Amino acid sequence: MKHFYRLILALSLAIASFACATNELDEQIAANTTTTAVPEEIYADFDEESTRVQLDALCRTTWTKGDLASAFYFSDKVSVFRFMGRTGDRSGALQCISQGTGGTAIDKVVLLYPHSESYALNASKGRIGVTIPDVQYYQEGSYGVGANLMASVGEDTKFSLKNLCGWVKVQFVGAGTVSEVTLSGNGYEQVAGDATFYYNDFRLALLGQEDASEDDSELGGSLVFGEYKTTVKLDCGEGIALDPTEPTEFYLVLAPQTFEEGITVTATLTDGTTLTKSTSKPLTVERNHIVPMSPLEVVAQSMREIHYTATEKVEPSAPNAFGANIVSNEWDSATGKGVITFDGAVTEIGDWGAFSGCTSLTSITIPDSVTSIGDSAFVNCWSLTSITIPDSVTEIGAYAFYGCPSLASITIPEGVTSIGELAFYICSSFESITIPNSVTSIGDNAFCDCTSLAEFEGKFASEDGRCLIVDGVLNSFAPYGLTEYTIPDSVTDIGDGVFCNCVSLTSFTI
């Protein structure tokens, strides 16, 4: 008869409760279990301390569509709720998708974000075993979704989440693409992994800050958390391209604490380049606070190198003309390939002949970090047949390629705004050349004595392709194969040296 009444009581309680539509409540037969209903829907926003799931462009709190949260609804059994609003919403409803049934009764409702199946609640101690992820995922201008541990404690269906962690904002500026960022404490502190959340006083304790090994009979075992992480990694997926002038921000979620011996941050680029920065002063990460680090300059390995081919090792004529110092110059006689490595980004091929007189040089590739090719940079490089000029270059100086008779063609990249006087003087192998739309000025005699030049294309080119006309001034002339020529009607002036060494020209009409 006693068992019959217990069964009737359990059935009555089940009918009276409001459970999730897709789940049934287990029969509650033990004296220490609870049958309090889990609601189908709850409402959650963020407290006035600006707790964050992720940030929008105005640094306001936002949800991400489909975010999952865990709820202990008057029970130590976890229920799962899904955010039903849109990405970018600052508040909204969460719907129950999985109900935790039975278990030990507690006198509160505890909501945790993000959801984890590993959460374990100890009612007598008022604590929950949680995990701070040691691998987080980059999100522009924000912390990665699912990385930021939050909680709310209440007694109804409305919640206001608070952060349990703090954050370090790392900033990089320079050239290259970041694939990952790692952070660790110099004293081997725990930065991620298992921890304990005490929901009565809203405190997060790391391993060693509380007795994590004591017996928890109510859970049928013990809270032993062995995942002690000393490094946290921010995974940047396919890579985040850096800006050479404006810092790019990377956020890492950390357990609140003081790093007495400072921290170490390492950025790894997609080309394998690494940058490591260590601080020695104590650094404190507080709950719900951002600790910003000063911008660090990152230079990809490709920006530190100039690759070339030559018939013998090339020694730059002006080794201080690159914006960085040469640390090595290796040349393989078997392949003719060489690489000059610098201690920083190569920003210029400077004035006064960086490679002037390097007669063995046959080809060269200039890195993307270079913005200018200076005066006389490659003067009298007689054997130079090929050169790669990156789009980053905006200026080609005077006499830059003076006396390169073997340079048969060159691509002037879009972005170059000026070409200096005599820049391609005596480049006698040129047959054609294209001037990009970005060019605003061309110096006198820029293409003087280019005896094989037959055509100009692009900006400033005349209709027949034989002239460059800049603001009515006949600036340059392509003489190859011509014995006579009629100057276009648009010309109002003839610049200096336009008809330099036009040995076949016998007459022209103005």
Keywords:
single chain; 510 residues; mainly beta; seven-stranded mixed beta barrel; 44 strands; disordered N terminus
Order of strands across the widest beta sheet?
Answer: 1-6-5-4-7-11-12
The total count of strands amounts to 44
| Principal-axes shape call | elongated
- Radius of gyration based on Cα positions: 35 Å
**Beta-strand content estimate:** 35-45%
| Helix content bin | under 10%
Would you identify the regions where 5 or more consecutive residues have pLDDT less than 50? 1-35, 212-225
What does the model show?
With 510 residues, the protein is an all-beta fold. The longest helix has 15 residues. Strands 1-6-5-4-7-11-12 form a 7-stranded mixed β-barrel. Strands 8, 9, 15, 16 and 19 form a 5-stranded antiparallel β-sheet that branches. The protein is 3% helix and 40% strand. The protein has 1 helix and 44 strands. Strand 11 and strand 12 form a beta hairpin.
Summarize the structure.
With 510 residues, this protein is mainly beta. The protein has one helix and 44 strands. The chain starts with a helix and ends with a strand.
